[in-house]
Amino acid sequence: MKVIIVGGVAGGATAAARLRRLDETAEIVVFERSGYVSYANCGLPYYIGGVITDKEELTLQTPESFWRRFRVDMRVRHEVTAIHPAEKTVDVRNLATGETFTESYDKLVLSPGARPTQPALPGVGIDRLFTLRTVEDTLKIREFIEQHHPRSAVLAGGGFIGVELMENLRELGIDVTVVQRPRQLLNPLDADMAAFLHAKLRQKGVRLHLGCTVEGFAANGDRVNVLLKDEAPLTADMVVLAIGVTPDTGLAKAAGLELGIKGSILVNDRMETSAPDIYAVGDAVQVKHFVTGQDTLLSLAGPANKQGRIAADNICGGDSRYPGSQGSSVIKVFDMTIATTGVNEKTAKQAGIDCDKVYLSPMSHAGYYPGGKVMTLKVVFEKGTYRLLGAQIVGYEGVDKRIDVLATAIHAGLSALQLKDLDLAYAPPYSSAKDPVNMAGFMIENLSHRLVEQFFPEDVDALPRDGSVTLLDVRTPGEYADGHAEGFVNLPVDDLRERLREVPVGKPVYVICQSGLRSYIACRILAQQGFKCYNLSGGCMRRWCGTGPPHRRPGPAGWRSKQENASHPLPLQWVASSVICLSSRTRVDLRPSAGLRGAPPSPAAGPPECPGTPSRTYRGTETPHRRRWS
Q1: Over the chain, what is the mean pLDDT?
Q2: Higher pLDDT residue, 458 or 419?
């Protein structure tokens, strides 16, 4: 049996190695257009930033090493120019010599990947404008930086590679501006969770121009002008196009293979195309989403590797099936970690799923063990069935562990209610006796038993301020004085039982605190006294700046010192923090309230952009809202 594989890297190289392990007699030939047959494309931004210092570390296998280990004929700088399914041949050009020839096959595997999306804009292709997809692209960018020492860069686009590249350029001391049409970075995140990313990038000095349309590029001496619609152009020493990727399926289309969304190659769950004996894997193929069952494209290394293995199994007589892509991902953004799995709330609703969600902001490990940091989880599930749909986590340590647990739960078909039953490893340096994943399960169980009802940050603006409902903030007076949502009156949870007579009867009560715990306790107290209560899911932790240290206030110029605050008091409107101001534009007021039965204060003006939010490191055994900053 002779197998030809078009393209290496994740899918093609994995298929080649698996084929050899299953069939020692097969003739396996791989044609790779670039000069590298198997490389770590996820590591490319880190070579540009100098985190990976040796370019050889990017090369996972060479043609020579593949031949020594697997006796696979790897031919780099060879481009397949045509496929002839009826004749079972391919046309090939040697890019080094210009020679062309025809090669026959018994089985063909297509792993062409995806190419950087390059819109038909004026100026695309000028000097100092780069894309990042291959090792060659990486070497070109790094060489430019080493030779020209750029001081500024514009990145058009904010996907995974773009975010990693902006971090590495910023760590090199380059001023970075990100511009893109969507109003948030990292599409797998919901807008409320993406706000944490935006805040971190602004805190690190990255400029974000979101909701802006790039109309072209123009050379400006040794610089580049980025032309924006209805805005002044941006000027930088270099520009990187990172607006996404497009399936590289010209060969498949010319060969008459059936195509799917965005021109991707249509395959079944055995990775077979519409043509006999032709398989396709990786970023070029259309897959089913594991959660929604809908057709989708997911450019991730994990699925490509699995698909390559499945194609090899089936070529060798097996019956392996690809169950679909779940979209699990994790990314480092400076000292922050962001991870997702399944579908977000926006995608679930677009798929017609009636979904609900919980937010929580637990510690990464036991509070009494030093060094713990807060992570924020958003878990999305289907109403009624409690089918687990997806999760997003933003934090520091321990994020990757929790997202992998949730990804496994989704794949195993566990319901959101079963999260509480997971027996997860615990020791104080690593977790809490009630792991954050368990805590999400407890919260969802409380909802299922109607022990509590929720409202969300995006609901706050719509709450009536006419006295028809009671808006209650159950944090301490000190926290409340640091900042509170408009119209919410302070009644600390520890005083609630003794002061119940102050809460007007016959009115719904909307309760908030910092993390959602104290407000939940308050809701249970009130509910058992006959009140109809609603708890702010996840609390206002990191949503209002009143939860921060009293001498730090974010404002138009970023974080200010205690002395700066004293000499230049910030206007009240700048106390709005990342999540709320992006998702619902809720106003926050620092003025004293008139009390439970008094008139609420008038709205304050809101900020045009969201200020940064610092990471938190806690010590001690107090509850999160009482822990000191260290």
Answers
A1: 86
A2: 419
In this structure, are residues 343 and 327 in contact, taking their beta carbons and an 8 Å threshold?
yes
Sign of CA dihedral 259, 262, 264, 267: negative
Q: What does the alpha-carbon distance between residue 577 and residue 12 come to, in Å, rounded to a whole number?
A: 46
Give the whole-angstrom CA distance, residue 614 versus residue 578. Answer: 11
What's the mean pLDDT in 307-331? 97
Rounded CA separation 29/46 (Å): 31
Query: Among 26, 108, 112, 113, which residue's Cα sits nearest to residue 275?
Result: 108
Count of C-beta atoms within a 10 Å radius of residue 402: 24
- Percent of the chain topping pLDDT 70: 86
User: What is the pLDDT, as a whole number, of residue 596?
Assistant: 55
The string of DSSP letters for 197-216 reads HHHHHHHTT-EEEET--EEE
E strands of 489-537, at which residues?
489-490, 509-512, 533-536
Q: What is the pLDDT of residue 55?
A: 84
- The whole-angstrom separation of Cα 522 and Cα 497 is 9
The pLDDT confidence band at residue 335, using thresholds 50, 70 and 90, is very high
Instruction: Give CA angle at 44 (43, 47), nearest 5°.
Output: 95
Token look-up 């990727």 returns: 245
d(CA 502, CA 597): 8
Residue type, 437: V
- Rounded-to-integer distance, Cα 279 and Cα 265, Å: 10
Position 572 scores a pLDDT of: 23
**pLDDT tens digits, one per residue of 203-255:** 999 999 999 999 999 999 999 999 999 999 999 999 999 888 899 999 999 99
What does the alpha-carbon distance between residue 628 and residue 618 come to, in Å, rounded to a whole number? Answer: 6
Residue 107 in tokens:
């089985």
Does the structure show a pLDDT above 80 at 608? no
User: How many whole angstroms from its chain centre is CA 564?
Assistant: 35
Query: 482: closest CA among 425, 570, 549?
Result: 549
Which 3 state secondary structure label does DSSP give 532?
coil
Question: What is residue 40's predicted lDDT score, i.e. its pLDDT?
Answer: 76
CA 469, chain centre distance (Å): 37
Question: Quick one: tokens of 121?
Answer: 């804009």
Using alpha carbons, list the distances in angstroms from residue 258 to 15, 252, 274, 392: 22, 8, 6, 35
What pairs with residue 104 in β-bridges? 89
Q: Which residue has the tokens 């619902």?
A: 584
Write out the catalytic residue numbers.
42
SS3 label, residue 293: coil
Strand residues in 95-144 grouped as ranges (E)? 100-104, 107-110, 114-116, 129-131
Q: What is the pLDDT of residue 594?
A: 42
Residue 558 in this model has a pLDDT that exceeds 60: no
DSSP 392-445: EEEEBTBHHHHHHHHHHHHHTT-BGGGGGG------TTT--SS-HHHHHHHHHH
